[in-house]
Write a structure and sequence with these properties.
The radius of gyration is 22 Å and the shape is elongated. Strands 2-1-5-4-3 form a 5-stranded antiparallel sheet, with helices on both faces. Helix 9 (about 190-200) packs across helix 11 (about 215-230), helix 9 (about 190-200) packs across helix 12 and helix 10 packs across helix 11 (about 215-230). It has helices at about 1-20, 25-40, 70-75, 80, 85-95, 100-105, 110-120, 155-185, 190-200, 205-210, 215-230, 235-245; strands at about 45-50, 60-65, 100, 130-135, 140-145. The chain is of the alpha+beta class and about 250 residues long. The longest helix has 30 residues, at about 155-185. Helix content is about 55%, strand content about 10%.
Amino acid sequence: MARAKLRQIFDADADFLDSLDDIKSCDEVLARTRDVLVAKGIARMSYHFAPPFHSQTGERAVIYQHGFPDDWMRLYLDAGFRAADPVPGIVMAQTAPMTWIDALAQADERPETAAFVRQLRAHGLEHGVGVPLFGPGGRDAYSSFDLARPMTDADRPLTRQFREIAQAAHLRVSHLVLEEVNQGSQLSMRETEVLSWLVAGKSRTDIGTILDLSPATIDTYQRRIFAKLDVNDRLHAALSALSRGLVQL
């Protein structure tokens, strides 16, 4: 019976992973992921997605969650409070799953961090596991799960399953976001080439030489790029391009 149940779980995971490429909505990816994880007994989960060069607890992070208390989420969705959460940063730096307890043991001693940890424990949220997720173009994310009880050695396989499922879902979300960004920017192939050399720090003359175009033509492409990215200078164009995954270093 136990073997049959285990096989049923693995088959369900395989079906979910195989179906991801057919999902066209980030919301549906996350909802399907939640359903698979809840079926495994996970009581709470979170997913923190931020643009490249931004923190998973910063103002631009998008937070998806399931199962956390409403009063806790009212606190956590305040960007000032969330910025004091030390766990995602520690987990991302570790590049491996960590229990919240182990991560908190490495937290700094700033007053705002201590205040965050007190609230975390007051809400009974101390037995979770944080998991780093990695995506294309530096689009990394943080995810966590909580069984609403202390973890045991018997739960280690669940951590591996969570990581595999969450990583696959994150890759699908990343690709959907990149598709939307690329459609929105509508840069031509030549504009993308010019932008790539701008990001690399090449001058207008250098880019013209590389692409066999006149400096005046490079100027024209540069003005079009600035307009499409809604920026006014090379530095902001480079930062926007990198954060949106339009080019890579």
